């Protein structure tokens, strides 16, 4: 983050995009192979929204807008965590599959939390 803005080639953009790709592929698998449509659709919506909001933050109109967009991405990430855990507990995902997704998601969450905290400090100063 530089002056409250994300760089185009930053790790958060890359990780959130890769996570979204995994979520899209998981949705295709769950709907085709497991005939599960409701939970996977919720994950598809929230899991792809993370990166979309991170990308929107890159063109934020203000520091407050930047923080707001990343905060929405963080909420979507936490919602995605819920859907992955629910898919695991209902046996649509194996423990191994869920843990792999959750590892990637936790990295994104940690980055978001860190950037939001830094942006809020910059805002105050």
Residues in β-strands, percent: under 5%
Unreliable spans are none
Tell me the number of strands: 0
Structural class, by secondary structure, is mainly alpha
Radius of gyration equals 15 Å
Overall mean pLDDT stands at 93
Helical coverage, percent range: over 70%
What sort of overall outline do the alpha carbons produce when their principal axes are compared? elongated
Largest sheet: none
Treating each run of at least 4 consecutive H or I residues as one helix, how many helices?
Answer: 4
Order of helices and strands: HHHH
Between the first and last Cα atoms, what is the distance in angstroms? Answer: 16 Å
Could you explain how this protein is built, in words?
The protein has helices at residues 11-33, 38-57, 63-89, 95-124. The protein is elongated, with a radius of gyration of 15 Å. It is mainly alpha-helical and 125 residues long. The longest helix has 30 residues, at 95-124.
What secondary-structure arrangement, pairings included, does this model have?
Elements: H1 11-33, H2 38-57, H3 63-89, H4 95-124
Helix pairs in contact: 1-2, 1-4, 2-3, 3-4
